[in-house]
Design brief:
This protein has one helix and 16 strands. By secondary structure, it is mainly β. Strand 3 and strand 4 form a beta hairpin.
């Protein structure tokens, strides 16, 4: 699995109170651009279940000699806790996979990864407010929008690289901006997702008041994931704000198979 996902794989947090966490059911399509040129596409399909969500997403990108594609099949509980995620992909024709599933007691993720001729396994803490984020995964950015609205104290990203990289992240609200959707004016909220306290990178989320993702920018890599028909007006300059890291030892463990806070 080493090296099959480019650089930026993210994940996020969920609150136990306050905000409506319902994800928007249905399909959404996005275009991936760099320097104004289309280099790929990504889409997601969210289905609401009686016990949570089933989410399938796809993506593909072609940049010079670099060819990348992925499929993610994700299960979430009603509070957006990850239950299981199965990711398969190819990089320049070489296949890789990354499977993560909750342990029977609900406190850990069990990870199995393959790629580059290697098979690896790992376990990491199953935190609340966590998103598994393959590069350019529209579904992951949709999940992050709803955590951005809920503003939990601590949040996490599980990066499907190697045997899994678990890092903290934080959400920082920015001033609203304006855009157009198929030519009609639309007000857009803006939140910066800061990934890791050291050598931080960011994802810039733009979304409507009802939580519909319009755009996700990866400024350090100069990639833009834009909903079909949307145009952002006067894109703000990107800055990575400082956020505090969560404590290394979490304060409390949930009972009855719930993730750690």
């Amino acid at each position: 699995m080493r090296g099959w996902l480019p650089v930026l794989l993210l994940s996020l947090s969920l609150p136990a109170f306050g905000q409506n966490l319902a994800l928007p059911a249905g399909q959404s399509q996005f275009t991936i651009t760099q320097n104004g040129k289309t280099v790929g596409h990504t889409e997601s399909n969210i289905v609401r279940l009686s016990n949570g969500y089933s989410i399938e997403s796809h993506g593909d990108m072609s940049l010079g000699r670099f060819q990348y594609s992925f499929t993610s099949q994700n299960r979430l509980d009603p509070m957006l806790n990850v239950v299981q995620d199965q990711i398969t992909g190819t990089v320049n024709g070489k296949q890789a996979s990354f499977d993560v599933a909750s342990s029977t007691d609900g406190r850990q993720f069990i990870i199995h990864a393959s790629g580059g001729g290697k098979n690896e396994s790992n376990t990491v803490t199953r935190h609340q407010n966590l998103v598994v984020v393959p590069d350019f995964d529209a579904a992951a950015y949709v999940e992050m929008v709803h955590f951005a609205m809920a503003q939990p104290q601590y949040s996490w990203v599980l990066i499907p690289k190697g045997n899994g990289i678990l890092v903290p992240c934080g959400y920082v609200n920015k001033p609203d901006v304006q855009g157009t959707l198929y030519g009609r004016s639309v007000a857009v909220r803006h939140t910066t997702v800061v990934i890791s306290a050291q050598n931080a990178i960011s994802i810039e989320l733009y979304y409507t008041t009802d939580g519909t993702l319009m755009e996700a920018d990866l400024p350090e890599q100069n990639f833009y994931v834009i909903r079909n028909g949307f145009q952002l007006l006067n894109r703000p300059a990107s800055t990575v704000p400082h956020v505090g890291a969560p404590p290394q030892q979490q304060q409390q463990q949930q009972q009855n198979g719930q993730p750690q806070q």
